[in-house]
Amino acid sequence: MTRLVECSYLGKQAEGLDRAPLPGELGKKIYDNISKDAWQKWLAHQTMLINEKRLSPIDPEHRKYLVEQAEAFLFGGEVDQADGYVPPSS
Fold this sequence. Notes:
The protein has a two-stranded antiparallel sheet. It has three helices and two strands; from the N terminus they run ββααα.
């Protein structure tokens, strides 16, 4: 049976994650409030940040930055973009 959550990113009910994607309180918050679709959108944005800003996931400072960005992206906050990024027009 599919687990549904009221996704705070999408603003609607959607299929929830199978497990917490991060340890700790933030992981629980994401598990309880973020859908699989919203998480995939974050992963795409995270990949862009890693590539464009030349981040290393093994660097503790870079990991800390990515966790902060994940929280901002998923729950509303100031989210960094790559230099020169122009969002697609709607």
